[in-house]
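Running co-folding for pyridoxal-5'-phosphate.
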Amino acid sequence: MFRAMTDQTADIRIPLELLPADGRFGSGPSKVRVESLRALAETGTSYMGTSHRQKTVKDVVARARRGMAELLGLPDGYEVLLGNGGATAFWDIAGFRLVRDHSHHAVFGEFSSKFAQALEQAPHIATVTTDESAPGTHPVLTAQAGADAYALTQNETSTGVCMPVARPAGADPDALVLVDATSGAGGMHVDPAEFDVYYLSPQKALASDGGLWLAACSPRALERIDDLADRWCPASLDLLIARDNSVKDQTYNTPALATIFLLVEQVEWILGQGGLQWAAARTGESSGVLYDWADAHDLATPFVADPAMRSPVVVTIDLDERVDATALCAVLRANGVVDTDAYRKLGRNQIRVATFPAVTPDDVRHLTACLDYVIEQIAE
Ligand SMILES: *Cc1c(COP(=O)(O)O)cnc(C)c1O
């Protein structure tokens, strides 16, 4: 039996020298660098509260699109589109203007399953098929006769499993590869030749706030949008309208200006540090610290058994039943180390830690010291 947080656990004070400089380890909304927040505040009267149809804001949108293209190394002919609603809205958007009538999905956790569900309920999509695997693993995506879109999730944020971004062998050459990169983009390598749409919400690996979706689209994906132009679609979910606005560095309706600004801050910061290669090395280092810690600890085990499937950006660690993960996270929170809780629906005695590029490897090392200290106190 797990014991509830007792008065003693509530009183545990982690020694100051063990604490990370920044205690935000959530998988989304995730740590936004204080430097980005300061830069936003410093815009004072020149940006927030000004028209999104004017140059000041359009210039920032242009930087967001250009920065994403540079970060991902997009070839000529690709476009970065954006609009309101986040990755969840993008699933519906994709159903209208990217999936013709049959989508095939890799389903291995909460987020990948939600996209499949959204399309199963869409009356304009005839067939939705899946390759599924148990939480903690990813399925191999097999080519399906007639599938015109394949749905991959680069990093399943709910379980800490990453999968390769690759066109399924044997897929129809005209089929689109749609990649949910919400928690992977900016922190993991990707080859643009392997996707047609690489979409994300910016409050995860890209250390901004929620409310927007961004999608890097290949020429083939841009063509598909035109091919499906005759299908009825609500204007707010219409990728054709989003595309026509995005290429003019604006959005169809008012976007969250702070979100765009913070995204640009993070993307340009990563580019300044050395781009995706630097970011991937950093998330690899940070996540490696945690996996090594769990491997070495008697009461902890990486949840994802296969090292090749272990995410470099969201680390999930199972705890022995002698350690109550809920109590552990509560003690950490009381000490300013927050959002290490497991994904609620997974229902495991687990912690989940984001090691996105904004998180420093040094803070992750401090986190392991905090974990050692608290586990020592609360283990039965
Ligand atoms: C968080 C998340 C989403 C949903 O993002 P919203 O901005 O809440 O719509 C989708 N996919 C993945 C992989 C995520 O991590």
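Result summary
The domain at 35-272 is CATH 3.40.640.10 (Aspartate Aminotransferase; domain 2).
The chain has two domains: 7-33+276-378, 35-272.
Job closed.
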